[in-house]
Amino acid sequence: MRKDYLFKRIAITLSAVMILSLAGCSGNNAKSNADSSTAKNDGKTAGVTQEAQTADGPFGAYPEEITYTLGRQTIQNPKLPDGDTYENNAYTRYVKDRLNAVAVDAFEANGEDYDRQVSLAIASEDLPDIMKIGSKDILDELVENDMVEDLTDVYNTYASDYLKEIYDSYDGRSLSTATYDEKIMALPGTNVDSAPNEVWVRQDWLDKLGLKVDEDGNGMITVDELKNIAETFMEKDPGSSKNPVGISLAYWLSSNDYGGSTYCATGIANALGAYPKLWLKNTDGSVYYGSNTEENKKTLGVLADWFKEGILDPQFGTRTWDDITALLTNGQTGITFGVWHIPDWLLNNVRAMDKNATFSTYVIEGENGKANVFHNNASSGYIVVRKGYKHPELAVKISNLFYDELANTKTLEKDYPEVAKYQADGVDGSTRPFNVEINKYTSLLDDYSDIKKGVDGEIAIEDARTLESRNVIQNVKRYLENTATDDVTDWSKYHSRMKGIELIDKLTRENSFNWVEPVFWGTTETMKSNWANLQKLEEETFIKIVTGSVPLNDFDKYVKDWNDQGGSQIISEIEATIK
Amino acid sequence: MIENKSLDSRLRNVIIYTIVILLALICLLPLWNIVAISFSSSAAVTAQRVGLFPVQFTLAAYEKIMGDAQFRRSFGISVTRVVLALVINIILIVLMAYPLAKSSREFKGRNIYMNLLVFAMLFNGGMIPTYLVVKQLNLLNSIWSLILPGAVPIFSVILVMNFFVGVPKSLEEAAMIDGATPFQILFRVYVPVSKPSLATVALFSIVGSWNDFYSGLIYITKIKNYPVMTYIQSLSVNIEELLKAGMNSSSLESVTEVSNQNLNAAKIVVVVIPLLLIYPLLQRYLITGIVMGSVKE
């Protein structure tokens, strides 16, 4: 843990040095920039005459072939077929075919390496025509320095009706994050609420021990019920591991994102009315930090008690992500927390080791009898266009193609067999020109409703809207025919959809959710300098409290320290921002 | 050596051998563990059950590597890079070391050159300036960006130079009497008798450019052009960061598949093999002294 911090600090210092030294060198580029901007102006006049001839509209192709350079965030295993690359694949050829626009990659990189490439591009003032950026902070910086194009007009003119419908489904929560002074400066990727943080429990163990859970069948269990299950699992060791662990949690305890809250206690905290690591608003309009509330103190108290009683992993604080996965896979623990899709990529290991393993999933019930959940940040990643690029509408047109046409077409196999084959073979979505998702707010449950109908035989498999749904229906059907199957994928898809999303669907239907809306997702001035330290203070204090090395009442001292070390300054900055 | 049979020295030997064997094991066991992991099933690895022997033996990881087009392409790029870098390095090292091996009486300004070299070895430009130079030369994304910045390994130049200094003068004089030009002297006399030192610097060059992943990370901006070590480095996944970055479920599925530790272990094993093959080939040069027997004094 210490080491991580050290590395992070070193990384931050190094990148700061890098940017500074690049800024120092940017004088060299002034001349070449001036050259290229005259060239750009020439291009602009050419562009205007060209546009006059363009068959205008959301899907209008360019009469003459154009090229666009891209910054591409890639992933480790895109599953591209032999010969295809990020730069030249079925998706980029589809854009070429529809719009007469050819992609040239300015740079490609995975994860954090990509962020470094973006910083290098910004510092050397050499942006690609269109690129993805990961965070709101970078967007702020680009807008502040006037480096990206205003997309308001092209969005209004060129965005297809369905694309606008998608953004509208978030009630403006998504598009507003990219809007500065009423101007749309980027196309935000959307982030569906994949709520809530679910508790996954080994159903085969419950059956073996004859334990009844959630007897009222509302999909929710109380904190006490959870404790009871953990105690019984500890006592009876149904996995015959000889070394059972009740509940194992990641040391960072919670995350401000549903996806990130796997192995976290977010579900427990939410049930107790705490929303750690989120910025929330009181009824009087004042902002507060969710980790520093009485409710979160109570959460830590519960965890500290569990630690004392041995229900919580005695090695809490030092157990790494991989260690926790190993506990699950080895059958030492049968309770874990995570989003609906963890059976697909995490719990599948459990099944691979134990052919009897099955899971059930619940939400922890709040004292108000509801499932408390928070809205995710509605935006995830942004697509920006370089200031001065002569075809800013291209970004919108490409979005129309991928998030409207491809999502809605019924005749993909016929029109673009190559693209259809990509989807059938599971080639990753990051190979599309823009590695973001732009989906309707309801897309998760819409897809599920298709899957459920398909599994129940109410619709033919071919009538499911997406290819993925069609595949899942087949997986689930195969699993239901033979639940002892050796095929882990069938097992995973059944669990993620018919258990994971089914729970969300059920709670939505029965109106069991109590939604909480965080008010701020960005970075303020003081956060830039103090946030890393405040996070460290929080994390270390919470670990100490849970493991009992300091008493619970130190929480109050922590809150005071936190405020003194810049916390209250940050809060007033946030209040000023959202006013 | 005369064997000392006293109990004291025998005890000393036992202690020394124990320490040496332990050190050897410390180096060897992690590698062996990687080998065992590469032959185990991914679930067993995830469960952290693999120690020194494979659990649920399978060749699946190796089959998958053979099907990974990018791995094959990157492997090819690395091989090309090693060969090019080796040829260029050796030529430049030899051409540079020979004049420097002369005394400053024969080669005026030798000491200035020497000091420049040592200065450049100790204080280099650093990452960002080097990056900018490479960028301005339009070398980004080309295999030359991996070779040219390190074309003259100064440490190796000094090593070879010192070896040249040690070559008996009379060999050169004999060649001169037979009417050899300076180039002939260099390539017919000096190079053949310097095989041990050249083999050493060749090994440095091969190992260095084969193992280097960092320059690929900086100078190569398209994944299809990555050398194999950069590619392998890019496969390491921090799942927590990905989750926090909001990666979607299907991408997570693909990523966790490739981050399977057994698959990565198999890749490591595959990229170590070429080096394991090269060592024994060069070793005989490293051991035999060649100068011996060439002159009688």
Explained architecture:
The complex is a heterodimer of chains A (579) and B (297). Chain A has 579 residues and is α/β, with parallel strands linked by helices. Chain A has 3 domains: 15-192 and 380-431, Periplasmic binding protein-like II (D-Maltodextrin-Binding Protein, domain 2, 3-Layer(aba) Sandwich), CATH 3.40.190; 198-374 and 513-521, Periplasmic binding protein-like II (D-Maltodextrin-Binding Protein, domain 2, 3-Layer(aba) Sandwich); 443-509, no CATH class. Helices cover 50% and strands 12% of the residues of chain A. Chain A has helices at 2-25, 27-53, 90-99, 111-123, 136-144, 152-158, 161-168, 203-209, 223-236, 266-271, 294-309, 321-329, 342-345, 348-353, 393-408, 412-415, 417-425, 443-456, 467-481, 488-509, 525-546, 554-578, and strands spanning 66-74, 101-110, 130-133, 179-180, 183-184, 187-190, 198-202, 220-221, 279-281, 287-289, 335-338, 359-364, 371-374, 379-385, 513-516. In chain A, strands 2-1-3-14-6 form a 5-stranded mixed sheet. In chain A, α1 packs parallel to α4, α18 crosses α20 and α19 packs across α20 (488-509). The two termini of chain A are 37 Å apart. Mean pLDDT of chain A is 87; it is low at 17-54. In chain B, α1 packs across α16. Chain B has 16 helices and no strands. Helices cover 71% and strands 0% of the residues of chain B. Classes of the chains: A alpha/beta (579), B mainly alpha (297). At the A-B interface, α1, β2, α4, α12 and α14 of A face α2, α6, α14 and α15 of B.
